[in-house]
Amino acid sequence: MLKVGFIGWRGMVGSVLMDRMKAENDFQGFDPLFASTSQVGQNGPDIGREIPPLADAFDIVTLSGMDIIVTCQGSGYTNKVLPELKASGWNGYWIDAASALRMTDDSVIVLDPVNRHVIDKALSEGVRNFIGGNCTVSLMLMAVGGLFQQGYIEWLTSMTYQAASGAGAKNMRELVSQMASIGNATAALISNPASAIHEIDREVINTMTGEEFQVAHFGAPLAGSLIPWIDSAMESGQTREEWKGFAETNKILHTRAPIPIDGICVRIGAMRCHSQALTIKLNKDLPLEKIIDLIGSANEWVKVVPNTKEDSLRDLTPAAVTGKLIVPVGRIRKLNMGPEYITMFTVGDQLLWGAAEPIRRMLKILLAYLG
Ligand code: NAP
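^ thats the input. predicted complex w/ NAP below
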């Protein structure tokens, strides 16, 4: 029976992966081994059957007994352990949520509803590294993969509204603590219907700019505000998050002539759903009904939301989408720049299609391939 090692299973992405695998009854047909960088010998996750105590995630001998390793531990772990494993002669399959290997020549970025043909070709060519994509890129492709697949996109710009979870668990806690501080500071004023709005406003801004306000992880207030910078600076003037839009999309799609993609990535006070406003220049004037049909029929998770206030408020918000695999796309219309210019808004749970789900599905594809 194939042996599969899981590293990083208790982190944020890893725990969503465990939940999804349990929900889909995936823990069968292989021997799982769970490892940790910090809890060796303790109990692993509850997967509905007996499993050995946690192995040491740095033990190369143990890891080299695995046919497949699935890691959600992070790039530092990948950069340290994979070269040591390869040096030991290991030739197994590496499935990884971290970004470290995404752009290497010997890896494929996995998003099978969009690039199953790229994955299948790579498997037949002996590729061993299968890497989950950037959350924003994966969600954008789940939303408008239909237009890319038909070759209708000349260029695309994405203005993002990204959730706190993309920055990690500590940042999610910081967002909620910022919300609590603002709530506590204004509680008395809010409970008094006669209080003046300018007093509430002043109390909010005094709290947000005060020394007690928790900003250690984001570096600036996020609750009641936003942060127009995600990740590190690039020489181009983009942030690394913005750079990934072009680099990863074209790698996922395996485009012959790269499609220009760019935009501004912004952190907002949502918990775990990323949203994006897309502007697309098509290479021909398509009827709106055809555009909607191409978007809505691309995969079984994308869902077109009619361009009405009622539908948008009900179905096209982070609050409506959290915890769900659907990727709604709404506000679809032509722009007044010309008939080839279209806009739309999309939302997706970035811990599901943006992180854990492509990894879960890649493991299933690989297990089926290896028979
Ligand atoms: P994370 O929550 O920080 O977890 C990573 C590891 O931290 C865990 O596997 C665990 O390893 C250790 N850890 C220490 N204290 C912990 C605690 N109190 N609870 C749980 N785990 C704890 O990392 P992540 O956000 O899941 O990200 C993992 C990788 O996926 C990163 O490379 C990230 O860039 C990538 N990714 C993240 C997202 C996202 O939205 N967060 C999306 C796509 C890709 P031990 O058991 O070994 O101690």
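Residues 8, 10-14, 36-39, 57, 72-75, 97-99, 132, 135, 165-166, 168-169, 350-351, 354-355 surround NAP (CB under 6 Å).
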